[in-house]
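Reopening: NAD(P)/FAD-dependent oxidoreductase still failing for me.
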Amino acid sequence: MEDTYDVVVVGGGPGGEVAADRVVRSGLTAVVVEAEAVGGECSYRACVPSKALLRPGAAREAAWSVDGARQAVTGALDPAQVLARRDRFTGRGDDTGQADWLNSAGIPLVRGHGRLAGERRVEVTGADGTVRTLRARLAVVLGPGTEPALPPVEGLDRIGVWTNRQATTADAVPERLVVIGGGVVACEMATAWRSLGASVTLLVRDQALLTGWEPCAGEEVTRGLTGLGVTIRFGVSATRVARDGTTRTVTVETDDGATLVCDEVLAAVGRRPRTADLGLETVGLPAGGWLPVDDTCRVTALDGDWLYAVGDVNHRAPLTHMAKYQARACAAAIAERAAGRPADTGRRQAWSAEADHIAVPQAVFTYPEVASVGLTERAAREAGVEVRAVEYRIGGVAGAALYADDYRGHAKLVVDESRGVVVGCTLTGPMATELIHTATVAIVGEIPLEHLWHAVPAFPTVSEVWLRLLEAYGL
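Support: Ran it again with your exact input. Result attached.
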């Protein structure tokens, strides 16, 4: 027996949920297959719990940055209350609310591990071992997400290493934490657990943090983490780890001959696609790899318009908000093609995820916050863009000085001189994550700088940095 739907979605994370919802809104039918919790990694073990852990420390830092408020905040954070607040947001992994939402939207949920079983067919193996087959009239959308990649460190797979999952869901603060990595997860989790009282050491193979960003981002986060008391060791890699069976402490050996003793080790060095057991081989695709797609999120390695991939697994923009954006485009393409129209990719089409190429906003909730969108200066030059970069210290803006005493922040615009438009922006400092959307709109809208001059920021706000940047450019 086969149950048939217009669209079968494998993976109930942010991308899968949105794809199914938009398909149903278009008048088609859809079903979601999920083996774990509906809502995916973001809801329970990544974005949501990490920001819940980070916010109390940020609130304290904001109070400390203003004389008069500083004197009112005299104690440390209450770890038990911080962890309890996090659990209120995540429900400790209970996905009842998310599953109920699917039901209310008219989207059946099939719990179990889904894998392709040929063209337009998905076999779902339930927890009890029963197998159910789902057939798609139109399309299968794959959104299995990714899983942590562990570095090649001897013994790491035997110590009960932390990944993002344990780092965002732990029930107690470790006394000593070693973090392997220097990217977003490493920096945010170092910030969160240090603010809760842990002694934190970062082992960073590179010579800077956030190496894919503008240099100012890594420099500011390094200064912020160091100010919090985090020890950062650049140009160092862990080579061997071992956990003591009696004390439960972990010994970490590094390639420069040092030995560290800690209570937990967090590996935060990247992600790999969850495609090893997705049945890709049944349709002629290699198992275990990423799934390249076009701008409609159609898997390009297959002929026909029936297999799509959204979210991290397509390796375009591994961020929750971009997974949802891709899902909207994917669903629109499926509906368009179901109606007999071609849904060719092109500018400003609802079914074309073109922002993946030009305007991917990112936000890191460290001290200070950092945010970016579009191209770095280096990436723009490597792409052959005629570039001019403009920078400004945000602390020189009246609104920033009022917002925080000794406001520290940096703004950088990357301008395409041939077109007179912004193609990249990086911001650091308090409120940076809230300010970045202005740059996103400017890049997507291709708004000429002389037009931005007439978008007057209110006084006295931190947004006045846009006026200062334009003045620095020469307008």
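The longest strand covers residues 131-142. If you still see a failure, please send the error message rather than a screenshot.
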